[in-house]
Amino acid sequence: MKEGLVKEIVDCYNGDQGMLIPMMQDLQAEYGYLPPEELRILSRALDIPLMRIYSVSTFYASFRHAPKGQHEITLCMGTVCYLKGSKQISDTICEEYNIEPGSTTSDRLFTLNAVNCVGACAVAPVMIVDGKYYGNLTPESALEIIHGLDFGSEEEDTEKTKKSMKEVSNRRSNRE
Amino acid sequence: MNSTGTGEAILSPHLISSPAELEALSEKLRKQKDPSTKTVRVCIGPGCAAKGSLKIYDLFTTAAEESPENMKIDSKGVGCHGLCERGPIVIVEHGDVPGEIFYQQVEEPDVAEIFRETVLSGRIVERLLYEDSTTGKKIKSSKEIPFYKTQERIALAQNGLIDPTSINDYIATGGYSALAKALTTMNPEDIIEEVVKSGLRGRGGGGFPTGRKWRSCRDAKGSQKYVICNGDEGDPGAFMDRAVMEGNPHSIIEGMVIGAYAIGSSQGFIYVRNEYPLSVKRLGVAIEQAHKLGFLGKNIMGNSFSFDIRINRGGGAFVCGESTALMASLEGRVGEPRAKYVHTVEHGLHDQPTNLNNVETWATISSIINKGGEWFSSIGTEDSKGTKVFCLVGKIKNTGLVEIPMGMTLRQIIYDIGGGVKNDKAFKAVQTGGPSGGCIPAQFLDTPVGFDELTKLGSMMGSGGMIVIDEDTCVVNFAKYYINFLRQESCGKCTPCREGIPQMLYILERITHGEGEEGDLEKLETLAQLLADASLCALGKTAANPVLSTIKYFQDEYEAHIIEKRCPAKECRGLFSYEIVPDACTGCGICLKNCPVDAISGEKKEPHLIDQDICTKCGTCFEKCPFGAIVKV
Description:
The structure holds two protein chains of two kinds. Chain A is of the alpha+beta class. Chain A has a four-stranded mixed beta sheet, with no helix packed on it. The C terminus of chain A is likely disordered. In chain A, helix 6 crosses helix 7. The radius of gyration of chain A is 18 Å and the shape is elongated. Chain A has two domains: 55 residues, no CATH class; 105 residues, Glutaredoxin. By secondary structure, chain B is an alpha/beta fold. Helices cover 38% and strands 14% of the residues of chain B. Chain B is globular. The termini of chain B are far apart. The N terminus of chain B is likely disordered. At the A-B interface, helix 2, helix 4 and helix 5 of A face helix 2, strand 11, strand 15 and helix 18 of B.
C-alpha cells in the first residue's frame, strides 16, 4: 500500500464524487488492479458507501480486482476478428495455458483480456501484447508470440514502475 | 526540419483575440513553409500503426534530421488515410514532381530507398505504387485510385493531411476560421438556423436532426448547460470516430465550441472509449493547444463567451454509448440507461439541459458554418444530407475507412470503392449498424444509403460499420455472435433484455449445434417482439435485429440447420463432413497420423479415405493437410 496515494488522487479531483470512475482508473494505473484496502480508504474519503464503489467497479469491464500478470495480452473479439478466427485463437491460448479470458496465468506471466474491437479491423485478427499490435494472426502465430514472453529482468521492471509513476505524476501536474 | 512532437512551438505567443489575428497567423504559417520543402507523410492511424508504421515514421524523421542543412524536409505522422488494406501508407510531396506520390505497403527496408530516390532526388519508386488490379497500371496519386475516386470527404477532409498533434497545421489549412466566423458574425440563433438548414442528422446511429436538438437544448430552462461529445465507439467492427479523434482532434473541439456557443453552455465533455488510449492522448494535446491560443477557456477570441472541455475515459461498457447511460457514467455511477420520455436536452447530466452528439457530427460542424447549410444540404438525398463515414471491413478486398455522399448505393461502396469480395468469393450480405443493425442480402445492393432506406430493410445506419460477409460465413453463427455480444453487454437493469437475450442465445446455440427443433424460429420471433416492445433502451429494443434480419432474408439457411442438420456455409462444426479428394491426395499420411479417432486409412503414396462412421468431424485433418486435399462437404 502506498501511503497517502488515495488522498492525493481524491484531492486532484477536488473530492468530487462524480469523478469516482477517473479516480479508480488512476488507482488502477498505479497498482494494475484495485486493491480492496485502497477502495475502503476511497469510500471513506469520498463518503460513498463501499457497496456503491463495488457496484461501479464490477460493472465496468476495465476494472480489475486481482493483480495482473507481468504481461498484458489483449485479444480483440470484434466482429471482423471473430469472422477471421479470433475465437479459435482465444480457445487455443486458453487451452495451452489453462486460463479463461479475463484471468491471469497461475505463474502471473500474463493476463489475457478479451475485448470488443480495438479498431484495427484492417489487420484482423489482432492481439495487443504490452501495447504492441500484432495483426493477421493464426492460432499458431499467436501462441508463438506468447511463448516468447518471459518474466524479464528486474531492471526492466523498475523502469516500468518508474515510467508508470511518472505518468501518474504528469497527469496530476496537468490537472493543476 | 519540423519536429512533430507534442510540445510543438506555437507561433503566436499570445491569445488570438480576433478573426483578423487568426487570419494573419494562418497566412504566416502558410508563407513560412518554403516551397522547396519536401514533405513525407506517414500514416500512423490504427491500421497502419498495427502494421509497424510508427517505426517507419521514426526512420523518416531520423533521416530528415540527418539530411544536409540546405534540404528542407518535413516528416509528419498523420491520421488514418483510409486505405488500411494497403498500409503502411507513405505520401511524399516533392516540388519537382507534380502532385503527391502515394506509396503503399511500405516496409522498414523501403524507407532508405524512398528517401534516397524520391525525397532527395525526385524519382519515383515504381514497385511501391498502387497497381490497378484490372488494368495493371501503376498509379502515382491517391486521387486516381478507384478506392478514393468516388469518395467525398468532409469529416475526414484533413485526415491524413495534417499532423494531429500540431495546431499550426490545423490553422494553416483554415482551422478555427469557422469558430471565428460564428463568434463574430453570427448570433447563436443564426448558427442553429444554419445547422437546421444543413439537414445534418446525428452520425452516432439515431439520426436525430442535430439543429433541432440544439434548439431544444438552447430553449430548455437551466442555469448550467452541458455539451457532450460521444466518443464511446462501441460497435465492434467500427473505427470511424477513432480515426477522427486521432487524426484530426481539433475539428471536434472547434465543432464543440461552436455548438456550446449556440446552445449557451460553458462546460463540455468528451467521453472516450477505454480501448482508445491514443485518442485520449491526442485530444488532451489538442485541448491544451486550444487553451494556449484562446480557442478554449475564458473570453474566447475576445468574446465574452467562455467554455472548457474535459475528457473522461469510459470504463469498457458498450451500453455507455447510449446517451443516458453515458451521462450516468459521467456522474460516477453505473452506466444504466433511464427512460427517455424525460429528454436529456431538458434533464441530462446532473439534471441540467445537455446536448450530446457523436464525434463525426461535431467534426462536420465547422464545414457547415464555413460553407453554409445550403451547401451541405445540396449533398446527399432528400432525407439524409451530407456525407457519411463508413468502416468497410470483413471479407472485402479494400478494407478501410471511406466517406461517401449519402445516396450512393451499397453496390458502389462495396464494389467500386471496396473492390468486391475478398478472394472473389460470392457475396452473401453486408451487415450495417453494428449489434443493433441487420444483414442486407445481395438483392438489395442497389439500395441508396440513407437513414430511412436502411431502416426499411430491417437494418440501420448506425454509427457506420459496414461488414461484408461471404458464402463461407454462416448467418446463423453470425447472428449468434451479435446476440452473445449483447448478452455480455446488457446492463441488466430491465428484465426483457437481461433475460430475453440469453434465451435467444440458447436457442441459437442449439441450432448451430444441430439440436434445433421445429418452432425455434417462431420462438425467436416472439422473443424479438418482446424485446422490441418492452426494453427500456435502444440496446434491448434493437437487440433482435441481427436475428430478425437474417431469418427474413436467409430463412432457408436456418431451416437447413434445424431440419436437415446441415450448415450450408460449412462453418458450424458437426453440421458438415470432411472428405478427401483422391486426385489431390498424395498419400503423405499426415492426416492419418493426426486423426485423434483413427478414422483415416490408406497406404503410403495412395489416396487416403475418411470413414464417416468413425469421424467426429473435429477438423484436425483439414487443418493439417498441406495439399488442400481435404474438403468440407
